[in-house]
Amino acid sequence: MNSDQLFHLIIYLGYLGAFLLLGQFLRIKIRLFQNLFLPASIIGGFIALGLGPYALGCIPKDVANTWSMLPETLISVVFACIFIGNKLPELNSIWVRAGAGVTFAYVQASAQWILGLGLAALVIAPIWGLHPGVGSIIEVGWFGGSGTAAGMTPVYNDFGYPEIAALGIASATIGLVYSIVMGIVLINYAVRKGYTKVLKTASSFHEVGSSGILRGDTAKPFGKLKFEGFAADHLAIQLSIVLIAVVLGWLMRTGLAAFLPIVNSIPVFPFAMVAGLLMQIIFVWLKIDDLLDKETINRISGTALDFLIISSVATVSLNVVITYFLPLMILMFAAASFSVWVTFWLGPKMYPEDWFECAMGDFGVMCGTVASGLLLTRIVDPDNRTVALEVFAYKRPFILPLVGGLSVSTVMAFRYGPWPVIFVWIGSLVFSLVISKACGWFVYSRPKGQVPVLNTTRE
To answer: Is residue 255 domain-resident?
Structure first.
């Protein structure tokens, strides 16, 4: 890359920044966007898509081609940030508190793989001629979210199925909107049925829709400076640590690929996540982890994620979505129906306490993003009077391997066909249910009302 190409890259990023600002402006002005909790990156991405070479043609194709290469790199930055700066809690205490939620999440993820690949192999592939691996877009787009779907684009392209990459990004966008809209519908229903512990009437909902702007006393600090400016800029140091994790992840993949060529089919981002975890462990061992500022790391991750999402949405192939609209809708309807069923049928059987509040966090993550899960948890328990938020936070380290495993399962589905992957996830589902039953969490006949079992107090 020469200096002119690098400068053009900065200019093209500036274009994306303009669409991101436009998306935020529209979010401020249009109440519907606020009520749907649509991020500015999604709004701006759709505007860029409409003006892009696949629609009105106002944006040159070379700009869109450059944008389309961003997600593969930025997703590694996002995943490298996951563990860096996090305190490493005792696994035993986490398991006691959040084990029921962990097994519930694994049952959901396993069932999504089985549902998606099974439906694709039995219905979609024979009728529309798509590879059965298209079933992976449920798990990649819904459980993985927009960032993961965009990061998986090179995997689909490498196997010769760019149309599935476009469907994956469309799936993630649909899942994000569905998670919020249906989540609020389910909370209203649960309030009327008496399944909620805190909310007793629809009028008890807190006003959570906002423009996303913090002004005056509502403004929050960016982070805590760990380095004096005359020595090295604080942000530069934190960013360097993240980038080193990405490099280490790339080196790990390259080294493994020398012995196992199939590893070349797996993207860098799961290795970057592992590298970030190893770096955190080393920082703790050296007793210099206090130099890490998690808030700053989160801002680096958030910035990468915003540009990742807006670039992936802006470069979706509309022709592919239109061509395969019906199979896409079949997969989306199946995923949506399953998400509601598993929440109300399995939720009360696997959560010993505050089942609906806990299950709504899982619903948001299963269909949209971690942010969706947190949002629904906040709506159904605005004052943190149940165990839902605690369980949601504590189980995250155990669930992250599911996200990293998305790429491996997708590669296996394309290389060896859907059925071996389906059988593996059937085993995961059965194992999760057995563990939940053995630990006393899974009770088939438990009623849907609140069943306080854990010795937890809330003020």
So the answer is: yes
